[in-house]
Amino acid sequence: MVLGFSGTQAAKIVGISYRQLDYWARTDLIRPTAADASGSGSRRIYSYRDLLELRVIKNLLDAGIRLESVREVFAYLRNHVDTDIVAAHIVISGQSVVLCQGDQLVDVLRNGQGVLNVLPLSGVKDQVDAQIELVMPAKAHDGTQRGVVGL
Q: Which of 12, 46, 99, 101 could form a disulfide with 50 if both were Cys (CB 3.0 to 4.6 A apart)?
């Protein structure tokens, strides 16, 4: 049995529509890592880390960052951030996104200046954990089973 979250569960936990989730998967913004769809009738299974990344994407979109820019941000994060993504801090300046790495600020999108808003990603974990408890109270936060919950 594969441990993880179905697309419907993932969408509900993250606070997006299933249609958004499906679009993001089909356009390779984020692919499920527990099990990807492999044809008609197969199901995508999302890992806990996938849920965290989905929530970061939602937070960036909610902050006014265009989807095209979110794709650039995630391409950069996947190639340059060695630690867990939720340990990173992103600074949003208008349509610019700056990553705080230790004592460095890296302009991920290389755009202009504006008012800076800090978006700490550590809160993403708390948001996802709280939604998991509401949607699936018997599932542990790391995706393992605590009770009898099947996908």
A: 46
Cα–Cα distance for residue pair 3/65, rounded to 1 Å: 32
Dihedral of alpha carbons 47, 120, 138, 8, sign: negative
- 61, 42, 55, 40: which is closest to 2 by C-alpha? 42
Tens of pLDDT along the chain (151 residues)? 447 899 999 999 999 999 999 999 999 998 898 777 666 667 889 999 899 889 989 988 998 888 988 898 888 887 777 766 767 777 776 667 777 766 667 777 764 344 445 566 777 888 888 889 888 866 555 555 544 344 4
CA distances from 26 to 19, 21, 32, 33, 99 (A): 10, 9, 11, 14, 27
The yes or no reply on domain 5-135 and CATH 3.40.640.10 is: no
